[in-house]
Amino acid sequence: MKKKAALGMFVAAGLALAGCTGQATNTAPTLSTSDLLVTTPAAAGDLELATWNLPFGEPSSIDPIKAFNYPENTVVANLCEGLMQLQPDYSIKPNLAERVDTPDATTYVYTLRQDVTFWDGQPMTAADVVYSLKRHLDPEEGSYWAGDVVGNIASVEQTGDAEVTVKLTAPDATFNSYMVTPIGTVVEQAFREKAGASFGTPAGGVMCTGPYSVGQWNEGQSISLTRNDSYWNADKAAKTAQVDINFIVDSAAIANALNTGAIDGSYDVPLGALSTLQGSTQGTLDLGRSLQLVAIISTGHGAFADPAVRKALMLATDRDAIAETVFEGTAQASRSLIPADGWAYGSEVFQSGREALAPTSVDIEGAKEALKDASVDVSQPIKIVYPSERTYYADIISEISNGARAIGLTVEPSAVPSAQFGAFFSDPAAREGSDAFVTNNYMDVPDPLAYLRTIMGTGGSQNYNDYSNPQVDELLSEAAATADDDKRAALVNEIQDIALADLPWIPIVDPSVRLFLNNRVTGVPASFVYLYYPWAADLGASGK
Prior knowledge:
28% of the residues lie in helices and 22% in strands. It is of the alpha+beta class. It has two domains: 2-203 and 513-541, Alpha-Beta Complex (Dipeptide-binding Protein, domain 1); 292-511, Dipeptide-binding Protein, domain 3 (Roll), CATH 3.10.105. It has an eight-stranded mixed sheet. Strands 15-19-14-18-16-17 form a six-stranded mixed sheet. It has a four-stranded antiparallel sheet with strand order 5-6-8-7, with helices on one face. The longest helix is centred in the C-terminal third of the chain and has 18 residues, at 485-502. The protein is globular and about 70 Å long.
């Protein structure tokens, strides 16, 4: 389960030029993270056709349970829907379920909408919902989501004509949030069973309830989304009849296609395209509120296995310089393992906790003092691995190396092909011989508890260095069983403090969402919701 869950993090780490945010104008080629966008102006009219791009390439599948990555989720979000839906402002609303009740801490009762139909006109039933949820529990289905959250499900049962009840083994206040992800996504049971092994492929397709259905899929080139004119939610009907999504991955080619109008828009604009697109008269490059984090992950080996060494290296690294130079001002220096504004509850508590954290400024003397507590041989080099195709990671490690030298440490960058790098997220043997590796990570849902649990919980799906702290495990369990949002946030702040003391990961920067839109289109969210929200349905004519 950990192995499959980690695959999504690899593309985020190995292929990502991701991150994003901010706002630019055609006349002033500067970006700012001081006021990140949530949405773009609403569409003024409909369109017959719009073009988009996936800078991470072609989806490997559009089966929702195989959607654990940028390419897959960015497409599937417009096709298939969850019981709940994440909104651009990170709030969570009922969707295919019209209501959720929690009679006790381990029971979730979903009352389903009765006006929902699949694209083929068949009604969505409680049996379809039960079947879809249970797919994650079936090893034969191979769900990429069969991890931390799914592993806590005790049972899924139909308890009424339009009612499904989920029982958990232990309380988990984050559970309902995951109903916005493919864990809570519904597919038509009869179609899935008939399609067999072809389900989710260009040959087999899928059958869902969303505002778009699958049009033509030209393998290696593009996939078309066709408006579902019988969509059950008239208020969210798609404004564009067809959206053609291309799979261009080359930075220069992406910049050219966007700058000439060959493509109308793209999330995750590559860093290498920023200089071209900031001054474009064809459209606007905006920065949006994100849930992403670039970090250095300890493998538990070598000098980097010592928390004192990790603390010293973080204090000596100029994270602000990395945000300004490597990310060209489209990121913020990280103060925490929790990305900036990465929460949908307890805002005052989380913000207060964040403000109490240490500043991101370089502290060489503090780093030298921290290094005195090291119990390892600090003369040995620290080997940090990154995917060779992504040179901006080399720039990040170079800046870390500068700080290391200032305090008597040696950092050695180690480049490996992306295909080999992926194993670092799934195979402990691959991490042998290295001290650390990079990640461009993201939160699945805007809940710091859910995120920190994967990193710091014993056996967590992103706990790559076998970190284990009984105090942390106790706090995680206590927080998961706490219904009051502010009290839960306070417990998470305690975990955050421990995270910054033990540093299983060194946080580097919080990238923003980088969104480019042609002048003729608008409407899509600018925040980091496009993996689980039907962004294309909001895309329409700007009226310009």
